[in-house]
Specification:
The complex is a heterotrimer of chains A (323), B (181) and C (429). By secondary structure, chain A is α/β, with parallel strands linked by helices. Chain A has a 5-stranded parallel β-sheet, with helices on both faces. In chain A, 40% of the residues lie in helices and 14% in strands. The radius of gyration of chain A is 20 Å and the shape is globular. Chain B has 181 residues and is α/β, with parallel strands linked by helices. Chain B has one domain: Rossmann fold, CATH 3.40.50. Chain B is built from 4 helices and 8 strands; from the N terminus they run E-H-E-H-E-E-H-E-E-E-H-E. Chain C has 429 residues and is of the alpha/beta class. Chain C has 2 domains: 112 residues, Urease, subunit C, domain 1; 306 residues, TIM Barrel (Alpha-Beta Barrel), CATH 3.20.20.140. Chain C is 29% helix and 23% strand. Chain C is built from 14 helices and 21 strands. In chain C, the strands form 4 sheets. An 8-stranded parallel β-sheet of chain C has the order 9-10-11-12-13-16-17-18, sandwiched between helices. Chain C has a 7-stranded mixed β-sheet with strand order 1-21-20-19-8-3-4, covered by helices on one side. Chain C has a 4-stranded mixed β-sheet with strand order 6-5-2-7, with no helix packed on it. The mean pLDDT of chain C is 96. Chains A and B meet through helix 1 of A and strand 4, helix 3 and strand 7 of B.
Chain lengths: 323, 181, 429
């Protein structure tokens, strides 16, 4: 059993998070999976703790997943969804920071369209900050839940061959996956249209391969990224037809590979674009496990970041002591 | 650091004590089919397993076995636990209408037992819950008492009791430790 | 830390080394100033004169910054001609060329005259740069000839690159006989593609839009071809990439009459300064890689680049408190310029005198300005430098109205001890 403490104060990204910390977060994630399968899925762990979910960008799924995780830990939850409108009105980070400060929150879960915004927030508030996606930077809990789903399926991450398919350049999911998986000893190949692969991505320790069929032959699992419709509106992706035929995880393409490749997708899916409906609903996909693991691993993150603190009154119990 | 003041039980004494506790359980529960033995993580798990083994040996019945980890139900995990070691909670049976024996190594403040009872309630509505402990060291902070007690040993503030089991610690023994400030 | 006050009637700078960037000669000797003019030490009363102990110091011509933003008119909350002049004086500068991207932009002779009138009594000389196009919009040529007549020393749409090649070509032909340079902020805005930092491994890690080196280099290449074609004076500002340095070197070897500058922040900082999402390190062109940094410093060493210019760009606290996408580009640079340049170029093997050349004779040559000779009878336009002094740059060193710089806390070797200019002096405590 590894030492079950996490050295992090905030979870701002998976870059720089140690293998040991990731291991502990995943292990506790599995403990919470067990809680989520009980008839009563709520534990009193974070009773009296206040958490605010601060979403400056629409995201129903991630917000619900965090909210569920918080509620199942018995935390007091406040939701604050400020659309792009309030950002454009000039209600900047500074005001947000000061409001959080004034509200005496214990933790802030923040989604924001600008890379680094959660890092900036963490510099100015006492609360624990959890990044729920900051622009095209990171989405660390997504990275953790993807790793948890792979760990569940394969029993290991070390040496696992994982392909990440799609718009790597604009994907925070890709970055968090890359940082986490490389730390845990997995091999990562990114695959997608050439102009959506950042030119320096190799320096993050990943391989690049533009041929989806070669990647499927090589990989144990592939994480299929959502293609943003804006990319098509911008004329960056010529057509659904071409994307689907070159990079889509289609029935026919999977059928050509004898190997059972596990399919992940962070959702929401564009069925018929980056992934076929039959694939998404098929045996190889773990997409619904990812959803459940998402709640469990977010419970784990909240548990560890809001967990043991310096004792204020009573002395800490001796590690071996039972009470 | 603490030093060993007395060995309260050696391996043989521990074996005898567990055997006696098993007999007391059998005396009170004729129908072992409605019984379940649940160990509190971490060392309670192994004491519970041995109790199940003893019941099988004497009655030839496989009593339901489970484990419960109480970390998520602790009221003091933020301030008093040095680091949360979360072990598995495995209750692979419906608890409704069962008589459950909770097994732990040491009974002290009662907070762990309170948390374990709450945790068990998340799985359903047992007919009853009883508590078996190897050592009761007193100094309760909640109105909790054990139904089956291996040994009573009231302790002072500086004294702690460490139960070692062969599965975790390589050796069966119960130690009375004394800590200086 | 330091104060700016009226220059005493008599000043004696004792025990230092005098370096003249015109003759490139050094000599030991005391420097005497009476009523703002250089004089023989014997001419002043040693008991009445204010004495500066300059042992270990170099006394030389005041620095010239050919690239600063003083924000007046329009954004006096960021800087004014007056506050910018204080910052300049504290940095050892006695002359500053101010860029025209004010509100409204300086795009006609009235604007040029406004700047000159507003700066008549300031402690440093202000030289206005006029816009190349009306409103800096890149569509219509501004009144370049009238602005030159009114006192503009150069033309630039700085901040806004002249994207339209035909427009820049016309501007170069139009100004060919004026003898003043056209300065084009060299970035292809389409290739820049919203980049807020250098495109590289770090921008990839941080998920921030990257501005590739080639956005600058390709624009410089075009501009250099236009300079060769027109035979006009083109000056390339704030060269930041190795590719750009190579291009400038190549065109100079071909005999094209071009000049180029580098900014202290591109000499001393790399994109690592953005690591912690520090908006103070957001600047255009961006802080680049270590290889680029060394190439730019190398360009100054071998003469490919002609001078150092600060690109002093003040912004309010509110502006820089925004996130990295919204925060504006730019950092202040006057007060830290000598410390930063002297420290990093010293590490590259340049002497203090060479650094002084890059801050005096170099920029004067680019702008066609005359240096004031260091001779008795001439106006005192001096800076006293302690080349070996190690110091930490702090908020107290900032005289600008703004304080947006990522350099606070950095330690430099080489410090401005005093600046004497136009009846005022700055002395460092």
């Amino acid at each position: 059993m590894s030492e079950p403490t996490v050295s992090l104060r905030h979870l701002l990204g998976l870059e720089g998070v140690s293998a040991q910390d990731i291991q502990v977060l995943l292990e506790t994630g599995f403990s919470f999976r067990e809680v989520l399968e009980r008839p009563i899925k709520k534990v009193p762990t974070l009773t009296g703790i206040s958490v605010v979910n601060l979403f400056f960008e629409g995201s129903t799924r991630t917000r619900i997943s965090f909210e569920l995780a918080e509620k199942r830990l018995s935390a007091d939850v406040t939701n604050f969804s400020a659309g792009a409108s309030s950002l454009s009105k000039g209600e900047g980070l500074k005001d947000t920071i000061q409001n959080i400060h004034a509200m005496k929150m214990d933790a802030v879960v923040m989604r924001h369209p600008v890379p680094g915004s959660t890092w900036q927030l963490s510099q100015f508030v006492d609360a624990v900050v959890i990044n729920a996606g900051d622009g095209t930077h990171e989405h660390p809990t997504q990275g953790l839940l993807d790793m948890m789903s792979l760990q569940e399926k394969f029993g290991r991450l070390k040496g696992l061959k994982v392909g990440i398919i799609g718009d790597i350049a604009h994907s925070r999911v890709a970055r968090s996956n890359i940082f986490g998986l490389i730390t845990m000893g997995a091999e990562v190949t990114v695959c997608g249209p050439g102009h959506l692969i950042p030119p320096y991505i190799g320096e993050l320790g990943v391989a690049v391969n533009g041929d989806i069929d070669e990647v499927l032959t090589w990989a144990d699992a592939v994480n299929v990224l959502r293609i943003q419709r804006e990319r098509m509106a911008d004329g960056i992706i010529p057509s659904v037809r071409e994307y689907r035929s070159r990079f889509g995880i289609t029935n026919e393409r999977l059928a050509r590979h004898r190997k059972e490749v596990v399919i992940l997708h962070p959702g929401p899916m564009n069925r018929g674009v980056e992934i076929d409906s039959d694939v998404a609903d098929g045996d190889q996909a773990v997409i619904l496990d990812q959803v459940l693991n998402g709640v469990a691993v977010r419970m784990s993150v909240l548990f560890h970041l809001l967990g043991p603190r310096e004792s204020e009154g009573e002395p800490p119990l001796h590690p071996e002591e039972e009470t | 650091m603490g030093e060993v003041k007395t060995i309260l039980m050696d391996a043989a004494a521990m074996e005898r004590t567990l055997a006696r506790l098993a007999h007391e359980i059998m005396e009170r529960h004729q129908d072992l089919d409605t019984l379940a033995v649940v160990g509190i993580q971490r060392r309670g798990e192994f004491l519970a397993r041995r109790t199940v083994d003893l019941l099988r040996r004497h009655r030839g019945v496989e009593v339901k076995f489970g484990t419960v980890d109480v970390t998520f139900h602790r009221d003091d995990f933020r301030t008093r636990l040095p680091s949360p070691q979360v072990g598995p909670t495995q209750i692979a049976f419906g608890v409704d209408d069962l008589h459950i024996i909770l097994v732990d190594d040491v009974l002290f403040t009662g907070r762990t037992v309170r948390a374990a009872v709450n945790s068990l309630m998340d799985f359903g509505r047992p007919a009853s819950i009883e508590l078996a402990v190897l050592v009761d060291r007193g100094r309760r902070e909640l109105p909790v008492q054990a139904d089956y007690i291996g040994q009573r040993h009231p302790t002072s503030e500086n004294e702690h009791i460490h139960v070692h089991v062969v599965e975790v610690d390589g050796k069966d023994e119960v130690l009375l430790m004394e800590y200086s400030e | 830390m330091g104060t700016i006050t009226a220059l005493p009637r008599e000043v004696l700078i004792k025990g230092g080394m005098l370096y003249d960037p015109i003759t490139r000669e050094s000599r030991k000797g005391d420097v005497a100033i009476k009523n703002g003019r250089l004089t023989e030490p014997g001419e002043i009363g040693a008991d009445k004169a204010k004495v500066i102990d300059a042992r270990g110091c170099i006394i030389t011509h005041g620095f010239i910054d050919i690239h600063a933003h003083f924000r007046e008119p329009g954004r006096e909350d960021k800087e004014t001609l007056a506050t910018g002049s204080q910052a300049a004086l504290a940095g050892g500068f006695t002359r500053v060329c101010v860029m025209p991207n004010t509100d409204p932009p300086i795009d006609g002779p009235e604007g040029v005259r406004f700047i000159l009138e507003r700066s008549e009594d300031l402690p440093v000389a202000i030289h206005p740069v006029g816009a190349v196009t009306k409103g800096q919009r890149g569509k219509e040529l501004a009144e370049l000839l009238e602005m030159k007549a009114a006192g503009a020393v150069a033309f630039s749409d700085d901040g806004e690159p002249v994207q339209d090649g035909q427009m820049l070509r016309r501007a170069l032909y139009y100004t060919r006989d004026l003898g003043v340079p056209v300065i084009n902020h060299a970035e292809d805005v389409r290739l820049r593609a919203g980049g807020v930092m250098n495109e590289g491994a770090l921008s990839t890690r941080l998920g921030l839009p990257g501005n590739p080196a080639l956005a600058e280099a390709s624009m410089i290449y075009r501009d250099l071809l236009l300079a060769e074609d027109t035979g006009s004076r083109l000056h390339v500002p704030h060269v930041s990439t190795a590719l750009s340095v190579d291009l400038v070197r190549h065109f100079k070897e071909r005999g094209v009459t071009i000049t180029a500058e580098a900014s202290p922040h591109h000499l001393g900082l790399t994109d690592e300064a953005v690591r912690d999402f520090d908006t103070h390190a957001k600047v255009a062109p961006p802080l680049r890689s270590e290889g680029d940094r060394q190439a730019v410093a190398g360009g100054l060493r071998d003469g490919t680049l002609d001078c150092i210019a600060t690109d002093h760009a003040p912004h309010t606290v509110e502006d820089k408190e925004q996130d990295l996408i919204q925060a504006p580009f730019g950092m202040i640079g006057l007060e830290s310029a000598f410390g930063m340049a002297h420290t990093t170029l010293g590490q590259m093997g340049l002497s203090t005198e060479q650094v002084i050349d890059l801050l005096t004779s170099g920029p004067a040559r680019v702008m066609g300005l005359e240096l004031t000779p260091l001779e008795p009878g001439e106006t005192a336009e001096l800076v006293v430098l302690a080349p070996d002094e190690e110091w930490t740059f702090t908020r107290e060193d900032i005289h600008s109205r703004s304080r947006n710089t990522p350099m606070l806390g950095m330690t430099f070797t080489g410090r401005v001890r005093a600046t004497i200019s136009r009846g005022s002096w700055f002395t460092c405590r």
